[in-house]
């Protein structure tokens, strides 16, 4: 999308606002499927948690994608978007057996990462095939909060617990139809990924009724000009060779599955904010915008980098700015960034705002969550209205403290 289009969207729908480019989503999806074209059976399950707007889910459905869900609500959202139960995999962590059974009733593929839950589920529902999530004990990912395959991770069943797992399967007579791993996000070294795949293949050999092997995702995208990213084409070539060789040894053509989120939607997203004030202190020039970490928490939470561009003055002289929000707390989007000269009223564009941005937003400070727009077929489509005050209070219950019947107890 060009700056002129983004400015028109702000003019029409206001700020702050999230904008997603459908063309970029489609190109990323095609890039991934092309990288693994040598595999006979490939399944892409979009990770709903990255960006869960129902219009985005429907777009993925048109591409032939399935979806990866981590909560019963995401399962329900996927069904509402038109996905068939068999197109949905449910990969929760730390949920109750009740929630897993609820998903089972809806007919989706279950993925379990806990020996206790596996035994309970297998005892009650031995007829339901399940996938198991393995922890390969491989450290991968760009941040400790998103590295989930290491030995201290809460995710997955340790490869050292495979004997326990096999005993549960034997005792319950349940069927394991899939095996899964996810080592972390922002993976750069494909050799680490390939090493983990060897562990997964060795584990998979111990299960005779597999239908698919799921390698999760975690592919890194570029966050700034010249930034490095996962070489998905090289990974596709090397992993496809290993997978095809494994299928030959296994004696059956299995499905190779992935569950990308960030890789598919991150670069499609732009977050647009208006500059409320430019504030000069003794050492810093602050650009204060009409948003905060209530709308985009990743820089404060993960230390993540989002390129910030002044689309109102793209040819202005570059100066150094610290871009901050309006939350009553330290609320910094970027420190000492070189940005074209900023004036009050300018529109700043935060790039790579498609993944884990709106989906992690909140009403902190009782602020409204922003609108969302999908740029599709050269037209801006509003896919979520901006919240209003009614949305803030609709689930709150107002107690009448003046009533004689409801005395307020003190002390």
From TrEMBL:
Pathway annotation from the record: Amino-acid biosynthesis; L-lysine biosynthesis via DAP pathway; L-lysine from DL-2,6-diaminopimelate: step 1/1
Keyword Lyase: yes
GO biological process, one term: lysine biosynthetic process via diaminopimelate
Function: Specifically catalyzes the decarboxylation of meso-diaminopimelate (meso-DAP) to L-lysine.
Chain positions found as N6-(pyridoxal phosphate)lysine: 49
Residue ranges constituting the Orn/DAP/Arg decarboxylase 2 N-terminal domain according to the UniProt record: 24-266
Residue span(s) of domain Orn/DAP/Arg decarboxylase 2 C-terminal: 18-354
Name of the gene encoding the protein in the UniProt record: lysA
Alphabetized HAMAP family for the sequence: LysA (MF_02120)
Pfam family, one: Orn_DAP_Arg_deC
Enzyme class, UniProt record, top EC level: lyase
Cofactor(s) needed for function: pyridoxal 5'-phosphate
Protein name: Diaminopimelate decarboxylase
Enzyme Commission number(s) from the entry: 4.1.1.20
Annotated catalysed reactions: meso-2,6-diaminopimelate + H(+) = L-lysine + CO2
InterPro entries, per database record: Ala_racemase/Decarboxylase_C, DAP_deCOOHase_LysA, De-COase2_C, De-COase2_N, Orn/DAP/Arg_de-COase, PLP-binding_barrel
Classification via NCBIfam families: lysA
UniProtKB keywords: Amino-acid biosynthesis, Decarboxylase, Lyase, Lysine biosynthesis, Pyridoxal phosphate
SUPFAM superfamilies (alphabetical): Alanine racemase C-terminal domain-like, PLP-binding barrel
Residues that, per the record, bind pyridoxal 5'-phosphate: 218, 356
Annotated catalytic residues: 328
Classification lineage: Bacteria, Pseudomonadati, Bacteroidota, Flavobacteriia, Flavobacteriales
């Amino acid at each position: 999308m060009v700056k002129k289009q983004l400015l028109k969207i702000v003019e029409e729908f206001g700020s702050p606002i999230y904008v997603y480019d459908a063309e970029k989503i489609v190109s990323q999806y095609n890039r991934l499927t092309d990288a693994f074209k040598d595999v006979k059976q490939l399944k892409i399950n979009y990770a709903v948690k990255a960006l869960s707007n129902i219009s985005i889910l429907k777009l993925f459905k048109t591409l032939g994608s399935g979806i990866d869900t981590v909560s019963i609500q995401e399962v329900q959202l996927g069904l509402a978007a038109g996905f068939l139960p068999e197109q949905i995999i449910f990969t929760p962590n730390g949920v109750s057996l009740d929630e897993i059974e609820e998903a089972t009733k809806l007919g989706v593929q279950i993925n379990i990462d806990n020996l206790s839950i596996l035994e309970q589920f297998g005892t009650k529902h031995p007829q339901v095939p399940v996938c198991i999530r393995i922890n390969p004990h491989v450290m991968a990912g760009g941040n400790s909060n998103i590295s989930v395959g290491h030995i201290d991770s809460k995710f997955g069943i340790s490869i050292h617990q495979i004997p326990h797992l096999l005993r549960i399967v034997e005792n319950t007579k349940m069927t394991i139809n899939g095996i899964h791993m996810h080592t972390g996000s922002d993976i750069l070294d494909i050799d680490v990924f390939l090493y983990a795949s060897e562990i997964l293949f060795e584990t998979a050999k111990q299960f005779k009724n597999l239908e698919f092997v799921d390698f999760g995702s975690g592919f890194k995208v570029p966050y700034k000009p010249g930034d490095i990213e996962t070489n998905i084409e090289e990974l596709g070539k090397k992993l496809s060779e290993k997978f095809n060789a494994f299928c030959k040894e296994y004696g059956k053509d299995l499905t190779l599955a992935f569950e990308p989120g960030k890789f598919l939607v991150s670069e499609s997203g732009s977050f647009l904010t208006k500059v409320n004030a430019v504030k000069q202190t003794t050492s810093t020039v602050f650009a204060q915008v009409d948003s905060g970490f209530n709308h985009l928490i990743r820089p404060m939470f993960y230390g993540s980098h989002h390129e910030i561009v002044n689309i109102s003055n793209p040819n202005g002289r570059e100066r150094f700015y610290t871009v901050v929000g309006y939350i009553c707390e330290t609320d910094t989007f970027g420190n000492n960034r070189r940005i074209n000269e900023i004036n009050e009223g300018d529109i700043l564009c935060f790039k790579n705002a498609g993944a884990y941005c709106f989906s992690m937003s909140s009403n902190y400070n009782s602020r409204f969550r922003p609108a969302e727009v999908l740029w599709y077929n050269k037209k801006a489509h509003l896919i979520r209205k901006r919240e209003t005050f009614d949305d803030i209070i609709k689930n709150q219950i107002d107690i009448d403290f003046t009533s004689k019947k409801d005395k307020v107890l003190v002390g």
